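User: I'm curious whether this sequence folds into something compact or stays loose and floppy. Could you predict its structure so I can see for myself?
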Amino acid sequence: MKKLSRTVFTLAGLLAMQAHAAQHNIDVQLNVDMQDNGNVLATLSLTNNGKGNEKILGWYTDLEEEAIFNITRDGEKVTFNGPHYKRPAPAEKDYIKLKKGQTITKKFELSSLYDFSAPGNYEVSYNVVSLDLFSNQSINSNKRELQNLSSNSVSFWGEGLAKGTANKGKPGSGTSDCSSGTCFTGRCSNSEQSAILSALAAADQIANDAVSYLSSHSASNPSTRYQTWFGQATTARYNIATGHFDAINDAIDNKPLTFDCSCSKSYFAYVYPNQPYKVYLCNAFWSANELGTDSRAGTIVHELSHFTAVAGTDDIVYGQAGAKSLAISNPDQALNNADSHEYFAENTPRQN
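Assistant: Here's the prediction. I'll summarize afterward.
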């Protein structure tokens, strides 16, 4: 195994570590190893150096659940090829408890979910941002702020490794059935196919409504609905929102959508953003209402917004309370948040 010993600390990373050392006393250390077979491994250690217990949202410590690393090649961001999920708002059970003085250490194969195939100067750091990162802010407070946790940054020259096996063996890769231009994989039953087509028609309805709403308003006249989910309007921000919903609506109307029914996770759904237009539906999708808050129709809007070919959104926060707080604290991030797009489209409770 080849040890990458050249470790550098960026100013931004140090400032983030210092800020959160004061607030949460979590020390984050990252090491990166390159194996002889070309795989790139990361070892992440989080230590609670505070006087009491800390609780960290579990999916921000799991690469299979979230894009927790920031990786660049020659200064350009390397795309995360893993899944982007729609989840319910985090509950207490979703947090990992770190006792005073405790360290948790995890290892990840970065080359399975990030592309290291091209030669260049790579820089890797652990960097997560969320309103819900630590379990210490009231979910009903409008004064919640984005929380960040960062590690040291590891830099190295990569010769161009064999491409990773991201998404290899993922569910639903078999044959598909199609109906009315929409296809199904993962053994969707007839009743599931009917439910999906009905939800897709409802998604078309709320996406059309969002497009009509945005075209009938403006940055100087955004009204309550826009400001609730996207915050203070400027011409640039309003144009971004309009472009996103135009693209979502176009995807529903004109793109070859595929829905997969093989996911057994408790989440609503997930997609691989660089693999349009396939949506994997999970358990919470089937128990959701067709319309309303966190609906089947809204889930489809949420997941379509993730595709880089559509709006390229991320998951900054989950749930209505978090999305409202994000609109107040950081309107630019709200425009990058998939749930914010979903709640704007669902419009429940209804706002004019």
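Summary: The first helix runs from residue 11 to 23. Residues 178-346 form a domain with the Collagenase (Catalytic Domain) fold (CATH 3.40.390.10).
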